[in-house]
Amino acid sequence: MVEIIGLITDFGLHGSHYVASMKAVILKINPLVKIIDISHAITSYSILEASYILKATYTFFPEKSVFIIVVDPGVGSSREILALRTKSNHFFIGPNNGLFGNVFEKNEINLCIKIENENYFIKPISNSFQGRDIMAPVAAYITSGINMRELGNEFNIENIKSSPLKYEILNKKKIKCYIQYIDDFGNGITNFPINKQSTKNSNMPLKEGDIITLDYKNRNYEGTFITHFSGTSLGSLLFLKGSTGYLEISMNQKNAASYIGLKVGDLIFINL
After folding, report:
1. Which end of the chain has less neighbouring CB within 10 Å, N or C?
2. Single pTM value for the model
3. Which DSSP state fits 125?
4. Is the peptide bond before 124 cis (omega within 30 degrees of 0)?
């Protein structure tokens, strides 16, 4: 089976040469690996966006796939670079800056290593581009079959940093949550998961036709919870369970984020 490495960065269009250099490092170590560009369009330094993109994609990859996440405001500092293996048998490499804590529950991780063994690095190591000099070669060596424990010492899972932006069920009719991503259609994707457990815990299972009020910066916006965009009239505000399982704020063929003024990281309240 061909091994796969997935890349997530905030390098953008003018950072394509950074992506190319990471790929070159990987292919020099393992020329048989397949590299998939998941996204290089993460807003600069947005750990919240990067964690959402990782959550939304990694489960569709085969077992043993390796993911490199280079969204790293603290590059070159004392923050750790970690290698994780989950119980789903996927591998992840990235900084300990809250990203992983926003993707995985601790019981989903069965091994976490602090990457320290310079035998697996590219030298000289740049303090400003550890994605190329540390993360890329380590990922390539993992696809080549090295034991993760060769990369460094085991890292206490309890010390994996978490994002402070967690949703909270305030009462039977109100949820506090955050915007974790906005796509090019202007859909505001919240961090509230629509699943049996989350709605059971809130005692407010959502069903088609429910009227929802969005409370944002002391302004209220009312819309209908529906299962598909055409379930409301053109230009109407709507709420739905998006393809990644989270509650989304949308408009039928219009840009909800622009209309409301939403930005990634914004605090919102959902009222039924």
Report:
1. N
2. 0.92
3. P
4. yes
At residue 206, the pLDDT reads 79
State the pairing for strand pair 168-171/174-182.
Answer: antiparallel
Fold of 4-159: Rossmann fold (3.40.50)
Q: Which residue has the tokens 């409370």?
A: 215
Among 269, 56, 73, smallest CA distance to 176 is for 269
Of residues 45, 254, 3, 2, the one with CA closest to residue 139: 3
Name 202's Cβ contacts closer than 8 Å, sequence gap at least 6: 169, 172, 175
Task: Give the pLDDT score at 204.
Answer: 59
User: Does the domain formed by 168-271 have CATH 2.60.40.60?
Assistant: no
Select from 136, 147, 167, 176 the least CA-distant residue to 28: 136
Cα torsion 254, 42, 167, 78 to 10°: value is -160
Q: What is the pLDDT of residue 58?
A: 97
Where do the structural domains in the chain lie, given as residue ranges? 4-159, 168-271
What residues in the chain have per-residue pLDDT under 50?
none
Position 127 scores a pLDDT of 87
Spell 216-233 as b/e; 16+ CB within 10 A means b.
beeeeeebbbbeebeebe
* Residues in Cβ contact with 99 at an 8 Å cutoff, skipping those fewer than 6 apart: 47, 50, 51, 54, 69, 71, 163
pLDDT the model gives residue 208? 85
